């Protein structure tokens, strides 16, 4: 299961080229890091891969996931998960219900879905906290819940847009290692955007500098 960008080009609404003829292959279980100065198009590239490119931007080339051309598919049909800087939780739902919201519709049966949530809580080191209000969690705990919610949707690839930048320094290493290990264990390709060299080192995969 690989993620391939073939001759990908992105033009800003003003006509300037942000990305030009990018060819990139991300192998299963590999986190490829995208670095570069602000404004170079890193997050825009993730938006293009995930199907969230804003109106006015022009895309050429192909996005291929597991041999399937998904370039023209809407975001909800691409099977790509996204983790952002802020771990956004639904405030009116418990931690467990937040996780259940991410469950793949292919998983049927109340018992099976409840078991999947319990397993996710355990893997995230949050066993017994399913009934908690998300507002009572620490930033690191929320980040773990956000990742597990993304993974419960059974994505075929994951996009990470500065997911650790909002964390306290003492929590950053722990959560970073947790995220990378979870992705490797799942065997899916991932793209990481970051300004932090330590994030890239922890990812352990290729580093692509956009200029």
Automatic annotation (TrEMBL):
<dbReference type="Pfam" id="PF00005">
    <property type="entry name" value="ABC_tran"/>
</dbReference>
<dbReference type="InterPro" id="IPR003593">
    <property type="entry name" value="AAA+_ATPase"/>
</dbReference>
<dbReference type="InterPro" id="IPR003439">
    <property type="entry name" value="ABC_transporter-like_ATP-bd"/>
</dbReference>
<dbReference type="GO" id="GO:0005524">
    <property type="term" value="F:ATP binding"/>
</dbReference>
<keyword id="KW-0067">ATP-binding</keyword>
<dbReference type="GO" id="GO:0016887">
    <property type="term" value="F:ATP hydrolysis activity"/>
</dbReference>
<dbReference type="InterPro" id="IPR050093">
    <property type="entry name" value="ABC_SmlMolc_Importer"/>
</dbReference>
<keyword id="KW-0813">Transport</keyword>
<keyword id="KW-0547">Nucleotide-binding</keyword>
<feature type="domain" description="ABC transporter">
    <location>
        <begin position="3"/>
        <end position="211"/>
    </location>
</feature>
<protein>
    <submittedName>
        <fullName>Putative thiamine transport system ATP-binding protein</fullName>
    </submittedName>
</protein>
<dbReference type="InterPro" id="IPR027417">
    <property type="entry name" value="P-loop_NTPase"/>
</dbReference>
